[in-house]
Write a structure and sequence with these properties.
Blueprint lengths: L5 H9 L5 H16 L4 H23 L12 H5 L7 H9 L5 H23 L12
Helix pairs in contact: 1-3, 2-3, 3-6
């Protein structure tokens, strides 16, 4: 959805989340987490980095650096990397291995959420104390 509206990304990423429509969207995200049994403090703790990571990742995919438009490397430059100095990147850009953006997005999102879930399991019953806080 964000990829379909790249101009919205800059607005979302650079404005405070205080507009009524934005707050409603955040509230919907919190509601989904709360309905799944996530405590409010944890829902807020996980939602912010997920939203920020999603915006940042999507911006990096479709955005251009302000005042540097047109300076992004061309695909042929990346596929012609020197294999002696950058063997892993040369392979990735030469073969496309690991460059499926959508797959990487979903994998990273799953890992981010799994990390929060694992921490939540460890601290279950500890209220809002950090995992390393004394009992």
């Amino acid at each position: 959805m964000l990829l379909d509206h790249p101009a919205v990304l800059t607005v979302l990423a650079t404005r405070p989340a205080a507009a009524p429509a934005t707050l409603t969207l955040i509230e919907r995200g919190i509601t989904v987490l709360r309905e799944d049994g996530v405590p409010l403090a944890d829902a807020l703790a996980v939602l912010n980095p997920v939203v920020m990571w999603t915006l940042g990742r999507t911006l990096s995919e479709v955005g251009e650096t302000p005042h540097h438009e047109g300076t992004e490397p061309r695909p042929e430059q990346l596929s012609a990397l020197d294999r002696t100095t950058c063997p892993h990147l040369a392979r990735a850009f030469g073969t496309g291995e690991g460059l499926d953006s959508e797959r990487r997005f979903h994998r990273t999102l799953r890992n981010l959420l799994a990390g929060y879930a694992a921490e939540s399991d460890v601290t279950e019953g500890a209220g809002n104390r950090p995992a390393n806080a004394p009992g």
